[in-house]
Amino acid sequence: MKKNLTLLQAFCLLAASVLSGQNAWQPVSINQLPANFEFKSISVLNDNVVWAVADSLYDISSVPANAIPVVMRTLDGGQTWEYHQVEEAIGRFAWDIQALNDSTAIFTTNQFNNFDNRPIYKTTNGGVDWRKIVPPQGSGGVYIHFFDAQNGVVINRQRISTTTNAGENWTLVPAANIPTFGANEFTILYTASNATAQVGDHVWFGTSGGRVYHTTDRGHHWTAAQVAASNEVVLSIAFSDTLNGVALVNGTLNVVYPVSKLYKTTDGGLTWTPAPDSPQGDITVLGAVPGAPRHYFSGSLYEIDLNIPSIDYNTDHLETIWTSTLDSSYLNCIEFISPYSGYALGYGGRVSDEVFINGESWLRNYIWKWTANLIDVTEVENAIQLQLMPNPASDWLYLDWKETGNDALVRIFNPQGQLVQTGQVSRQQPLSIRQLPAGPYVLHLETAGQTSSLPFVKL
Description:
CATH class of the largest domain: Mainly Beta
Structural class: mainly beta
Largest sheet: 4 strands, antiparallel
Strand content: 35-45%
CATH topology of the largest domain: Methylamine Dehydrogenase, Chain H
Strand order of the largest sheet: 1-30-27-26
């Protein structure tokens, strides 16, 4: 027993040390993208397969005719990255990308004029070739989300379309199913990934009218809730589950706030209340961590008053101090798929990151990977009331949980945050762990749109 207790205590100390340090983010790509390009969106399919889309920096009011979006892809967890210029989308601005599998992805485009039909582009051979697809009434111009390999939604203000065949064909959602946008109300974004949130069949996005739109049925019907003032911009949305979320308000159409406003919800976005203002001042990106209730990351695309931002972390639904996890770093987009697997895209703010192109100063871009256990295993509150028996265990674990489905997806991670076992499990049925080496682990369970994580020790 003394040996087992020591293992579990060591695991707790490991988790606490990770959260207090700044080495959990490791760069897996440095300036592989040209320095005068900027990441716009990321899609993390799993710990190994990640897609990202980027574009050159320019005024979106006049997209150059020779502008060519770039897509990057990794199949080995960031060790190597493929780089594809999407010449089929020349002269277009790329926004949001969604991976369907390791070889198939779709991204949205826009030219920001009244004549543009706002097509999407799809690849089925890993980014080598791309095919143009035009959803109805320009609905493919901004956001895209897929709920599984076949069913997805594209969003451009109140023009929204859905697909049931992997984006090959799209059906416009009836206007009666979508609250009307105001005359000067828009979907505002600097980068696309974190301007929306998706959990299960739910999607949320904000507007320049201080509102958050929400669907519970994969985009077929929408409601809108007033979060901030009617002239304030809801710039980023993050939900850690279907109930708990955060909205970032970063000014009006003509003014950027020096200190961003934060609002939180605990009922899926029906009602919102003010949260403590962001201590790091102006932020533009919020990201939630699935499986880690009330855990959020934040960062900024640019500096205010010469304060170089950082990627910051909060563990208590915005009620405690934000902690820097990666300083001197600008954040374009961030996505976690579990408390142990996440990627962030941005660029460095140090002098050593300065790059000159034709005499003009730019900053090196980065892709960082989270390499540690994010959950402090001393936490006792979980989205699911999960029990593991026995603990410690030698060959079998019995799992029990309440108020959710009978079947669940289980992932087991070692102290380095590496996925060592995955599979399906039924309530109160044995899960074999006999193949695992002795030591501490974290079991992550997902069922019926809810998640939970608990530590255990293998004897």
